[in-house]
């Protein structure tokens, strides 16, 4: 962290919403001498984070978001990324022309580390993890942070000028950035996602593109050149464009060529050596290779990482094999596009576990994948009727059950040796779980119990 940050000293700052990012933002601001007020809608008696901050001497207001709080003339609002701009508190702040940022922006403003920032509809966490592993394997000192689950405002207090922060950034986080300026930015892909929050696809894309908004020609912007939209979006950036391509797109620097993952024509590792399944993971690996090479990591270090990396938890994560069936946890697949990627990752017949929060989004795109890839489906949650209808349209047998835990033995019974049993819900978890991680852990627990019963 910069040694003498005075920007926030004696400034009244409102941290709106807690969670890990809000707690760490509040603590960082307090350390920097700001006059911090935290406002969270969860009641104080049930709010351990608020209790902890109060013990640190930080002003805490809980139980609701009182708009009149903004009459206290704050200089800045640090907003939880999940709170939409339609929130009354945020709307009032906008009316008052109060600057509103998210926690990554705060972290960047006080950081003196190098930054590599990664965003995209899918593949962010895997790409972020790979880049961090490659940099550390290559003798650099890198910290993974951001949407990957580690608050950047926590990491930035440790990371110094010789270190690199590898930051996974969601569209929600990027929407609240103004000065963010990574020296390397990565855009893995863009699909339809979070339109209920952003209001339109144009707003969603604009939020993603803030990752490169402050870059210059001395910076690098790594983009997926297999997607035609990227060619147009690249024109909005002042950075040096570094394309990657799995499909042989002209001009790409990180490529899949004759079965090898390459950079600037140099062979780095055979695609067959990757431990993570699916063509989408080839794309993630190519994006990571580009970032690592631009950071000065040698080919041998990159190859070692790719040969031993078995995946990120909850993202097509191999769990175990039971009686010839391989079980995979892809709880992070909270939309149709992510589940489509998972289904396309396997050549074996699949027994699919799917279901979750109903956002009233169509699932028609899953029909051909169900028809060609899936042996049977077990569904649960609010979207169960929609998935059941989609399965019947594809002519695939389907069972409905209570939740992911009860789905596991049903899926095993519907499978055959050589099959993949895959949790890839195609829906958010919030109808039954606080987040996709808890849902994935419930799946893993149920699989391990099944394994014990079958032993």
Automatic annotation (TrEMBL):
It catalyses: UDP-N-acetyl-alpha-D-muramoyl-L-alanine + D-glutamate + ATP = UDP-N-acetyl-alpha-D-muramoyl-L-alanyl-D-glutamate + ADP + phosphate + H(+). The keyword NADP does not apply. Residues 314-426 form the Mur ligase C-terminal domain. It is found in: Cytoplasm. Pfam families: Mur_ligase_C, Mur_ligase_M, MurD-like_N. GO terms for biological process: cell division; cell wall organization; peptidoglycan biosynthetic process; regulation of cell shape. It is an enzyme of class 6 (ligase). Its main location: cytoplasm. One of its GO terms (cellular component) is cytoplasm. Keywords: ATP-binding, Cell cycle, Cell division, Cell shape, Cell wall biogenesis/degradation, Cytoplasm, Ligase, Nucleotide-binding, Peptidoglycan synthesis. Signal peptide: none annotated. Transmembrane segments: none annotated. Pathway: Cell wall biogenesis; peptidoglycan biosynthesis. InterPro entries: Mur-like_cat_sf, Mur_ligase_C, Mur_ligase_C_dom_sf, Mur_ligase_cen, MurD. ATP binds at residues 120-126. Residues 118-292 form the Mur ligase central domain. SUPFAM superfamilies: MurCD N-terminal domain, MurD-like peptide ligases, catalytic domain, MurD-like peptide ligases, peptide-binding domain. Cell wall formation. Catalyzes the addition of glutamate to the nucleotide precursor UDP-N-acetylmuramoyl-L-alanine (UMA). PANTHER family: UDP-N-ACETYLMURAMOYLALANINE--D-GLUTAMATE LIGASE. Belongs to the MurCDEF family. HAMAP family: MurD (MF_00639). This is UDP-N-acetylmuramoylalanine--D-glutamate ligase. The gene is murD.
